[in-house]
Each structure stands twice: as C-alpha cells, then as structure tokens.
Amino acid sequence: MAHQIFDHMINTLEAKWVSVENDFYRDSQYFNGWNSKNKTDPIEVFCRKTRYTLRVMFWLIVSRIVHTLPVALDSFFSTLGLPVPSKSGFSMKRRVLKSGFFRMLNQTLVHDFYQM
Fold first, then answer.
1. pTM for the whole structure
2. What is the dihedral of CA 96, 37, 50, 29, to 10 degrees?
C-alpha cells in the first residue's frame, strides 16, 4: 500500500513539473528572471539540454546537502550514472527557483494525498 501511495505521489509531482515546465514564462511566481548571454535568444532555463533540469534541481535542493557542494554533486550524479556538472551551474540554476515553487509542490502533494 505504501509503495502505491509513493508511486502515486511521484506521478503527481511529475505531472506538476511537466505543467510548470511547459508554462515557464507564465509562472513567474515560481521563478526568478534569467538573462541569456545573447539578448535576442529565447530564454530557456530548464527547457534546453542541461544536466540541471527542474526535476534534478528539486531533488538536489530538497535532499538538504550536508557535504560540500562538489562532493554532494559528485555523489548525486554518480548514483544516477551521469557526468557531474559544475557547481557554478548549480548555483546559477538555484537562483532561478523561488520558494513559491516548493510551496506549490508541497500544496499539490498534500492536496493529492488527502484526496486518495
């Protein structure tokens, strides 16, 4: 039973991430501004090909990093079998996420949990 609830909650998070990623520009309540290098390029923070996707950033932040950042990144990405990205890239992406993003995900999970 607990396994099914956990799977359901992960699927709920996945659906919310997809919805937020697809509407990135509308959801400025969840994200800070992002300046591209070339001002004429469209702004793509989590849409472009990057190791720091919205999902990865969420899990890295909520995992409450207790080691130094390079050690934590190495451990996290090694577990996934992926190349380790830079800590400066993590810091830049972390600034994009507002606390409202985590409140929204928490509200989504709580609402969904009590609907079950």
1. 0.61
2. 20
Q: What is the dihedral of CA 108, 63, 91, 43, to 10 degrees?
A: -30
Q: How far apart are the C-alpha atoms of 25 and 45, rounded to whole Å?
A: 10
pLDDT (tens digit, 9 = 90+) per residue, 70-89? 998 999 889 888 889 888 88
In eight-state DSSP terms, residue 63 is T
* CA–CA distance, 96 with 108 (Å, rounded to integer): 20
Q: What are the φ and ψ backbone dihedral angles of 109, each rounded to 5 degrees?
A: -65, -45
Calpha distance 96→58 (Å, rounded): 12
Taking only the tens place, the pLDDT of each residue in 6-37 is 777 888 887 877 777 666 556 567 777 665 55
